[in-house]
Amino acid sequence: METKHVNKHDSTTPQKPCAPPKSTLQDTARICGMLGLCVKAGKAVLGAPLVLQAIRSMQVRRRPQMVFLCSDASANTCKRIQNGCRTYDVPCHMLPLTGAQTAQAVGKSSMIMAVGITDSGMARTLYEKVFSEPTDTHI
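Now predict its structure.
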């Protein structure tokens, strides 16, 4: 009787649920600018633990209207944030930025893997900047 060796790291590891949209350097700069504006206005929750806490919050003012995950967030972080968003009916999307780029955009020194936007207008604008067609500078 033969025994088959099973590798723990093949298909059993969780995969990231979705890929971030492609963006140009100009689009990335616009996204970073919008993230910085949200933070300066006090309409952003930064970091995966605080975003999860805000999603579960019963305070309407503090609850994010939309959540964005960084492209290099771990599979476990993606799963936890997306499960919380699904449970509390909050839209969740991937940013075309790394955690370091996001941290630099909002003026922090450590990487930020999740951002929750508490203002619906700002969340909609950021969503449009992330998922709009890449702008072409050559006309």
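Residues 25-40 form the longest helix (16 residues).
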